[in-house]
Amino acid sequence: MAKVTTDSTNDDISESVLLITLIVPGIECITGMIGNGFIVATNAIEWFQSKRLSTSDFTLMILSCSRLLLQFWLMLENTYSLLFPFSYNQNIVYKTFKVIFMFLNYSNLWFAAWLNVFYCIRIANFTHPLFLRLKWRITGLMPWLLCSSAFISLCYSLPISMDVYNVFVNSSIPVPSSNTTENKFITETNVVNFAIMYHLGIFIPLIMFIFAATLLIISLKKHTLQMKNNATGSRNPSMEAHMGAVKAISSFLLFYVFNFVALLLYMANVFKNNSVGNILCKIIITAYPAGHSILLIFSNPKLRRTWKKLQHNVRFHLKH
């Protein structure tokens, strides 16, 4: 079976590279945690006060909770791997980090796909019998779909610890201008097993997300064109809202696809540790949940109003 072997030590990493690898993903994670924390808090408060929550808001809250955990784990793994490389590269520690990371990633991508499917079914206007049947049943199905996705993510993540990665130490690397040797940790990746595990876990939600986003964009664009043809005034708030929705969904789709590619390259150990390619993958992976949460806040009227109210209250208290 094909294998990729990479160096896992960072003894020769420069201070500038270390700072960039720590600071940029760290800022992205903190930004995402603030954004997703705000989404969770807003919906949790509404749920507590009214004793009910719409299906879309509940799904969004679950997605944001999973992203909070993912971003915390991303920041922990990135910091730990850079500051404590020898401890991180112990076989059991390395595999534990990767399994939890993949479980949170799988769950995150599944939940994002289901949220997109829900929006598509509830908003898009298609007359196909199957689509109309789903429109009636999707609300009751969502809790079961989310629980099933979490279970599937766990089932696909656990085999990674057994069949994909193996970390071992080579203690016979000679040190230049010295009679001593140094330890180097080597990460061996079984590419075939990784490709099977990765695509089983992510291919279905990827197709779901792309399909639902495409259908929703087509439906919204058709509806926007109809409103544009029937518009009597120069400014139509409803049409602007639809165009904004098309742009937001298109942005979601780009974020999702870029994250898919970066995650594939990073987890397959295609690039050497601390190389430009590896650092870029980390930045994209941490940017996706942060960027998507910000887009969700500003594309959701309720969240946008609450965010503006929060900003106003913060400014008021700072002035007084």
From TrEMBL:
Entry's family note: Belongs to the G-protein coupled receptor T2R family.
Membrane topology value: Multi-pass membrane protein
Record-given protein name: Taste receptor type 2
Species annotation: Monodelphis domestica
The UniProt record lists the keyword Repeat: no
A GO MF term: G protein-coupled receptor activity
Entry's transmembrane regions: 17-45, 57-76, 96-121, 141-162, 196-218, 245-267, 279-299
Signal peptide: none
Keywords associated with the record: G-protein coupled receptor, Membrane, Receptor, Sensory transduction, Taste, Transducer, Transmembrane, Transmembrane helix
GO cellular component terms, A-Z: membrane
SUPFAM superfamilies: Family A G protein-coupled receptor-like
Subcellular location: Membrane
One of the protein's GO biological processes: detection of chemical stimulus involved in sensory perception of bitter taste
Function: Gustducin-coupled receptor implicated in the perception of bitter compounds in the oral cavity and the gastrointestinal tract. Signals through PLCB2 and the calcium-regulated cation channel TRPM5.
